[in-house]
Amino acid sequence: MTEHATDYELIIRPKYGLLDINWQELKEYRELLFFLALREIKIRYKQTVMGASWALLQPFFTMIVFTLIFGRLAKIPSEGIPYPIFSYSGLLIWTYFSNALSQSSNSLVSNANLLSKVYMPRIFIPTAPGLAGIVDYGIALSILAVMMIYYRFVPNITIVLLPVIVLMTFLLASGIGYWLSSICVKYRDVIFVLPFFIQLIMFLSPVIYPANIVGENLQWLLYLNPLTGIINAHRACILGYTSVDFVGLAISAILTIIIFVSGILYLKHTEKYFADLV
Fold it and tell me: For 157-180, what is each residue's pLDDT tens digit?
């Protein structure tokens, strides 16, 4: 009696349904996401003299420049607290967002070899930079802790919101990253427009100025930017100098969820041609 071996053939086809997301597949490949994030961290600091210290230096020296220009020369108000700690507490979460968005938006093109040679959930590639950036955020947070001791700021119970705010920032950066990375596969103009886009968002967000500097009749425009509620809440919950604006934070949460979910749907809808175009 002869046993015949059975050959199995795995055929991978793109999914065409708008809501056709294979959650079981994402669960099975979840370890790959963390390996991609770990790779992002290793590549970032490979062959660097300063290593992870760059995560401290970038927001710290930016804070010094902003303090001299906007705090000393322009005399921008800082809600009654010293401008250095005011600006740094905003720059801390902004730096995490901008770095995650910048790397996520170019991730599909820069990982063309993975798209064309290895099968994996495509969504993991633009998600990994956001996870890797949390490490830099944690490192840079130590400088803020030292500044809080120096300026005698003590957080209150609202500090428990900090993980939620960081999660919202991650979702927002990832959501926009899904959109831009998918578009970048077809239109490489995104690579050239992105630095200007990120710079524009910074000046439209209360990083270097308080949200109340804008007149009450125009503040609703400022809150259409989801980073407004996030940065305000981040500054308030850590420094504890004022109460958290839960209305603004709720608006930011709703906008963030919309951007994140729509980004996932757009990436899933367009991923069928990624391997052909990269």
Answer: 999 999 999 999 999 999 999 999
